[in-house]
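> call design_seq(struct)
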């Protein structure tokens, strides 16, 4: 599938999991924490939905959704290469993810995401709201002493 994005850039969208190398190529310039190979090997390919956005041979964005495929979903990774920020690539990724939710999700599916700096407004365009609760919003980040990197998405 070919899509036109701002400034007449032609991008290709592939519905597939990113490879570990593709993932790393976006994590490093985006200043995200990298994930150790043994964990990446176990994670990739187990998404319920995933797309890779390419400009020619170069991977410039990915979107990964994890969950049970019917009721609970989490947009785990939505990463755009810094040189493609503000060129509607994030919106392109979200359009595809939202299309997936519309076709596969149950009527009352729960869709979560953790917005990073600069993405809150994008998620709000798709109906996401901040959870502002005292007691029910919970999450856990596992940090082990034997690990050299922590994967946060």
């Amino acid at each position: 599938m070919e899509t036109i994005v701002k400034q007449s850039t032609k991008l290709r969208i592939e519905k597939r999991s990113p490879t570990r190398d593709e993932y790393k190529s976006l994590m490093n310039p985006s200043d995200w924490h990298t994930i150790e190979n043994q964990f990446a090997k176990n994670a990739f390919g187990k998404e319920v939905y995933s797309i890779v956005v390419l400009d020619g041979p170069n991977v410039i964005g990915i979107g990964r959704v994890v969950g049970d495929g019917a009721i609970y979903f989490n947009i785990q990774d939505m990463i755009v290469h810094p040189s493609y920020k503000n060129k509607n690539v994030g919106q392109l990724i979200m359009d595809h993810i939202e299309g997936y939710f519309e076709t596969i999700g149950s009527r009352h599916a729960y869709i979560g995401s953790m917005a990073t700096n600069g993405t809150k407004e994008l998620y709000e365009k798709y109906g996401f709201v901040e959870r502002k609760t005292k007691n029910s919003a919970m999450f856990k980040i596992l940090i082990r002493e034997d690990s050299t990197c922590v994967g946060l998405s």
